[in-house]
User: What shape does this take?
Amino acid sequence: MSLDATRRSFFQGMLGSAAAVAAAQQALAQQDSANGLPTRRLGKTDEQVSILCLGGWHIGAVEDKNEAIRIMDAAIDEGMTFFDNAWDYHDGGSEEIMGRALSRSGKRDKVFLMTKNCERDYEGSMRNLDDSLRRMRTDRIDLWQFHEMVYDSDPDWVFDKGGLKAALEAQKAGKVRYIGFTGHKDPSIHLKMLNKPYDWDSAQMPINVMDAHYRSFQKEVVPVCLARDVGVIGMKSFAGGDIPAKTSATHEECRRYALSLPVASLVVGIRSMDELMADIKIGRGFKPMADDQKAVLLSKVADEAGDGRYERFKSTQAFDGPHHRKQHGFAV
Assistant: This one.
């Protein structure tokens, strides 16, 4: 069986319809780059983004800030030119260090820059945007996403309290190019967001080998995104580190499985040069896993995955950001 036929077979089982399978094949289409780290199309935006995206939380956790800058410089040189961040990461520290790295000659224009809005209302969203632009020393955000759609009321709040109104005004003013949302809790919340009266550019969600068996974003949300040409951004391919640390699935298997699904890019947490180069090695010249490899891996983790023990961000508040807990009146 050819590789294309193998992929069709896998996606037919996961996504169902022939139209979804065709959309998955389109999402997986890659363009080679000079340094070998491929790019994929970010949904209807038609932007080409590197298949690996440098995670903002982890780069903000690097203790030596000069080393953090060196890691970001190396990432750009190696072709990892999609950068992630959020207004609340390390109380703004992640945006500030990324701003230092990108403010030097020519760096900003080499990166597709994403950050996230943690507010739901109009005024708060505008403050978040002003803070992010100032911290990252830039005049525009390439992708601005509503962060942590993890409570059932969040989608309603974004519309009813004026968050989307702020995003649309920022887009019209040229401060924001594209608008999306993120979340890690429940596929139903993502689906609620997707069914709101706005045509999102992107949706970020957990994509890993465990997710296939438990509250599955890849089975429930990805097909809807593909049908609407919403760019899928994967995250939590290690589930916070638990999968490679506590199961038989290796670092490389986790990354390769996630990248073998129809995601535009996969956010990866990097805190050292060694971690960066390990992921660059996986991404450079990447070819999706064969159907039988994915099936064996999914079968291997099925017993452990089914009860969500390694994806507690889906079933507890333990992984919800403190800003968002306070927003909903929960203890921090």
